[in-house]
Structure formats: structure tokens, C-alpha cells
Amino acid sequence: MTLSDAPSIAVDALSVFFGATRLLGPVSFRVAAGETLVIMGETGAGKSLTAQAILGTLPKELRAEGKVTINGRQVDTLSPTDRSALWGRDIATLPQEPWLALDPLMQAGRQVAEAHRYVAGLPPEGARNACVRDFETLGLVGAERRLPGALSGGMAQRVAFAAATAGRAPILLADEPTKGLDAERHARVVGLLTQVPKDGGALLVITHEAAVARALGGNIIVLRDGRVIEQGQTDQILAKPQEPYTQDLLAADPQAWPRSGTAPDGAVVLTAEGLAVTRGDRVLIEGFDLSLRAGERVAVTGPSGVGKTTLLDTLAGLIAPARGNVQRAKSLGRHAVQKLYQDPPAAFPPHVPLEQSLRDVARLHGVTWDRVTEYLIALNLLPDLLERRPDAVSGGELQRISVARALTVGPVVLLADEPTSRLDPITQRQTLELLAGITEAKGISIVLVTHHAAIAENWAHQSIELKSAT
Amino acid sequence: MTAARPFLAALAQRGLQALIVAVIVGIVSFAMMQALPGDAAYRIAAGRYGYDMMDAAAAEAVRLELGLDRHWSVQLFAWLGALAQFDLGRSLVYGSPVVDEIAVQLGYSLLLAAGAVITSLLIAVPVGVAAGMKPGGVVDRVTLALSVFVRAIPAFALGVVLVLAFAVQLKLFPVAGFRGPEHLVLPSLTLGLGLAAVSNRVVRDAVVDAMAAEWQLFARTKGLSARFTVLRHVLRNASLPVVTYVGVQMAYLIEGVVIVETVFAWPGIGHALVHAIFARDIAMVQGTALTLGLIYVALNLAIDLACRGIDPRTRSA
To answer: Quick one: A3-251 is in which CATH superfamily?
Structure first.
């Protein structure tokens, strides 16, 4: 075996423990130069633990076992300092949240240039030139002097990509690189990643999205609760999954969802005419029209930063429209329009048991507890869950509890702002299906803001795509 | 929108604050002087001629000369009216213009304040960084205990302890007064220790936050060494809350200057304020209190500007 055939990363029987509890493993795989490995699974499946165990960035209380070899060198026995010497030079890491991964006080260009300078060892002039070239290749010209806060999510991801790969490491490890990106940026990042093996690098991508795995190809490992469920060639496993869990995971991909039927022909409950949304002096959305019927599901899609959340707040009557008007049907009461939020933990008081939060809402609106329980059961929630605090239930459960809370008020219209974007695919599908079911049964209309084109397409009756007005 | 706009707005805001401070400080210090028991004319006469050399006639003469028999509101408005023309009046005891007195004292006080802040940062930054690099470690816990201990000691007691230890016993530094740089050490240390006792914890928290930030880890995984990451990213981000906190400490500093100057017989504005109160030198009290108030506003402006210097986000908004 010549050196070039040797795998860039070889992992043998890797396990991660918390005390005596095995959180991950045993996992074994090899990725050679020019190859791709996708690790797929839900949150908590151990995907990120795998990445951390390879890098040596596991939290202190966790312990890894097994052999990790990077570029022919066994690294799991190295000291933390020696392991960190591999970072950037032997193995590059693309961060999960690019916005948080960039120093908020340093210009984007300098964060890339410093990697060229201090990691690749270029002279100052050369580092600046290399940075300019990177920004040209990645379509970031003009963003060199911007601070991370002034970059969009997609731009931040590309800046992070340039900074991470400046050290020319032959291995790229990307942990959920498409998290929270809209369809267009999603495609761009996937495009960047597919280029890595073509250029002779080894690519290891962690994702929960079947679409990303499909686009990347190569080999795949499906993880669940830290165990390997299936392992093999990506196209084969995606085409013919053997395990029920893999099938569920694939079925949860919004592209695979069945299309919703036609909209019920209810009375119009909410209309918007020629609505404009502005932020400061900038016009974000212009000429937005909507005629929402009872029981109808409308999806609003568009790139991040286009003003989707502001639009929703305008429809809710929380913000006065910059232009145009929002009309509610005369029959609608004060509380008839309710909002669902993106981040369920932020929508509940953290130190109050959930039952008390719900009972307070019920009492305030004169709803019997039996009715609330009925909603909970319809949303597939066990009542004893309510004894816990918000941080002690899963994100999917908490989002369904917040649906129940909104229903308690007796709404006619629900405005949902990316309610499932932080949930796993299977949970996302389940949550949206339950939401559709219960609202259809009660004739409640929903406006759903989502960055996911497939969800808009398949789940809603009608979808409106927002384009940037400027 | 230009970057100069928020800058000018900040200046204008601080200017307005200065005006409000001037009026309030003048009224409050005047009211407090009026509320003190005893006859002001007697105390002023005693201040001028000495206790043994004055009598009721001298006090009466002082009363007439300074118009202390006028109604309090007349006296207050006379002071405010003069202030509007940037005239702080004359010292009731020495007869010299208050401005001249303050001009000399202020330099000494600013020297002491600068010495105190520099001392506090020289202590707080290394200690805080060392504690913040290993939260929960030995350094962290020991410095926490020390911080609580030092902060619990009043400034005057700390000053006396330092004098006993370093001046009386070890004879390293002079006890009090000001004749050379060596006189600056103990008063600066007294104030600086009190400031550092709290600010080292702020540095520590800022460093802990910065080290736990995702951008810190990313700077490492993109290949920067631990040392470079700290120098190029962590320190700058961590310094922001610290500089802001130094601004908050200005209140403690001004209060400390008054006490520490008295302990060390430092010829500054705080020392002068205490003496003016004893001598019922109302013009001096109002003048010095006003100056301290305005310095507070000016220092906060300086902190604002320092934060703008560190944080580029505030400049491009």
C-alpha cells in the first residue's frame, strides 16, 4: 500500500463514554483522499460526538476509547497540545453556527488572512493576497472589511469556510454545515463541499438532512442513540434503506412528504393588501397581498433577512404596516390571532413548571382544564410531561406544548415563525402533521414562515415566495 | 448616515448631563452646608484668624462681608448666577478665587486617580486572566477569597494598614504628603487594590465567556495556537466589559479619592473638600463637589470613546 492509498482518517472501534455510560459507538470507518463520508442521524444520535472525538475537543466529563488515525498518525494517544497542532494543518473544521464562529470584533477579511499568515505561514503580503483570492472565488468580494454581524448567514458560512481551509488541511470535517440556511445558500454550501473530494481532499460531513447526503454521495453511516444503524454506500442506502429507522429518517425529508389536499373553502378571516415591510429606511417587502381562508395553510418562504418575521408581526398587528393594510374579519376577537415562535425554550418562563404556564393561560381565558388536556392528547403529548420545567422536555414536545397553549386561547389564525427549524426531521414532520391535523379539524388557518421550500410545497395549501425588494 | 452622527450625539448627551450635574451638585452641596449645625460665620472666622484670635465681633464682620445673613435662596441664586458666567467665586476663608485653588488640587487628584486605575489594571488583568483561564481552579478560588477580603476592608483602613506595613515598619515609602513620585505609591495602591478587588472578577468572567465562545474554538480549530488565539481574539473581546466596568468604578474612585487623600494628606481636591466642609467654606465645597461631578461625566465620556475604539461595531452602525 502506497502512502497515497492510505486513508486520511481511520477510526477503529471509537466509543465515547460519560462515566460508565456509552454515548457513542463502537464506530469504525475510513475516509481516503478524494472520498466522502456522511454521518446522518438525529440530534443526540452522537454525530457531533464523533467529530469531537476525532478532533480531541470532547467536553472534559466525556472520555473516548478506540483508535483514531489522521494522515497515518495515531492521534488518540497524543497530548491535547499535540492534537491541537493538527487543527487547520491536517484537519480543517467547518463550524455549525458560522455567525458564532467568527470573532464579532474582527473584520471578515482579517480573520481569513490571519489563517493564511499564521497557519499556512505565508508572509503578510502573501496572506492578504490569498485572502483576496479566496473572497473572489467564494463570491465574497466587498465583504473583506465587514464585521461578522454585518454578514448574512450564507456569507458567514463562506468566510468560515475560507478561514477553516486556509491552512490547506487535506481533511475537511463539517458539522451540520447547512443548519438554518435557506434553499439557495444550502445549495451553495453543498456545492463548496462537493468540490473538496474532487480536489483530492477527504470530506467528512455530519448532517440530519437526507438531501445533503444525497448530494454529497460517497459513503454513509446512519447513527441512532450512538449506535450505527446502517453503514454503506450513500446512494444504495438512500435508495434501499434496510432499517426501519433509516426509512423513517428518509420519509421525514420534506421532499418525500405527501402533498396536501386542496384548501377548504372557508370564509376569509384575514386579508392583507399592498403590504410593505421596512427596517429602518430600507424597504424589505413591497406589495404583499394575502387572503387567508378559515382552515387554510399558507407558507411564506424567502431568503434569510428578507423580512419574514417582521411581516408576520405586521400580520399579527404587533407592528403598524409601513404601507398597505391588514384587515381581520369582523367576527374575530382580540385574541383570535396567535403566534408560534421559532425557539420554544425562549417562549416559556424557564423556572415555572409547564402545567402552571398552561393553567394560567386557561384561567385567564376561562377555558376548562379538560379542554386543554384534550388538545394535549390530540397533539400526542403525555399529561405527566407537564410536571416538568421547559428545559426538561425535548424541543419537539415543547413546541407541541406551545401549540396547545396557543389553541387554549381559541385562535382563528395561527402565525408560525419557523416553528420546526430547530427540530429534528422526524420530530419536524410529526409536529407539522399534528399541527395540520388539529387546525384542519378546528377550522383554524395558519401562516407558516419557513426557509424550507419543500415544506412550503408539500405541507401548505398555498405558498408565497418573498423576494428581496432591493 | 455617517459615523460622526452617533459620536456627536454621544458628545451632546454627555454635555447635557454635565449641565444637569452642575445644577444638582450645586444645590445639594449648598443644602447640605445649610443643614450643618453651628454658625457658619464663626467657623469661617476661626478658619481665617484661628480659634484664639477671633471673637463674636469678628464673626459678625465675616457675616456682613460675605452676606451670610441674606436669605438662603438669595445666596444660592447668587452662586448659580455666577456659575452661569463660569465664575465659581472666591474661597470664603482664603479669599483667593476657587478656580485657582481647584486648578492646583485637581492636578494632584487626577495624578492619584490615574495612579489608582493603572495600579488596579496592573493587578486585575493578570490575576483575572489567570483565574479565567481555569475557572474553578486553585487560582480562581484563591483570588475570589482574596477579592472578597480586600473589598470588605474600607479604603481608610486599608490605607492605614499599608502605611503601617510599608512606611512605618519597612520604611520603603513615605507616610504621607507629596514631594516626589515615591509618595504616589501607597495612596495609589490603597485605591487600586480596592478597585482591583472587584475588577479582577470582571476580567475573570469576561475571559471565561470569551474562552467558552464558539469563535474561540473556531480560531483554534482553524489552526491558530492557544497563545495567538488569546492575543488576537480573546483579549480584545474580553476587554470590552472590563473597560465598561472601569467606567462604573468611577463612582468608587471619586469617593475613594476623598477618603484616601485625607488619610495620606494628599494635596488634592478631596482633601480640600474635607477641609472646606470643616471650615464651612461654602464656595469651596460647591466648587470642589461640582468639579468632582463634572470629572465623573468626563470620565464616562472617555470610557464611551474607549469602547468605540475597541468595538468597531459601534462605529459602522
So the answer is: P-loop containing nucleotide triphosphate hydrolases (3.40.50.300)
